[in-house]
Amino acid sequence: MPLTTRQMQGNAGEDEALAHLQRHGLRLVERNFRCKGGEIDLIMRDGAALVFVEVRQRGGGGFGGALASVTPAKQRRLIHAAQFYLLRLKPLPPCRFDLVAIDAGKLSWLKNVLEAHA
């Protein structure tokens, strides 16, 4: 099944985010982790820390841009997916949630943007 234009743009944004994070020393663990109720675009290692990365891309700043597109519902789905992923890890590593926001081609990397509360 061929990808839609939106899917191709999303993949290109993830590729750009991945390359940026790798240039800054992070290592890819998994890409597009999916579970029932959530998805994580990139799971990376930053030293001992496991980093769950959401990549958001917008063509312009309308409606608040890429950052504003991470709604409370989206945050809950990210936390759910991360918790599901962590079930298979012993011992649990230190974790954080990062956001790579791409607005009109300008990439911003925001570290530790969510706090997971069990």
TrEMBL record:
Name listed for the protein in its UniProt record: UPF0102 protein GTP77_01215
HAMAP family referenced in this protein's UniProt entry, alphabetically: UPF0102
The species this protein was found in: Pseudoduganella aquatica
InterPro entries membership: Restrct_endonuc-II-like, tRNA_endonuc-like_dom_sf, UPF0102_YraN-like
Gene Ontology MF terms: nucleic acid binding
UniProt-listed Pfam families: UPF0102
Highest taxon, organism lineage: Bacteria
Family listed: Belongs to the UPF0102 family.
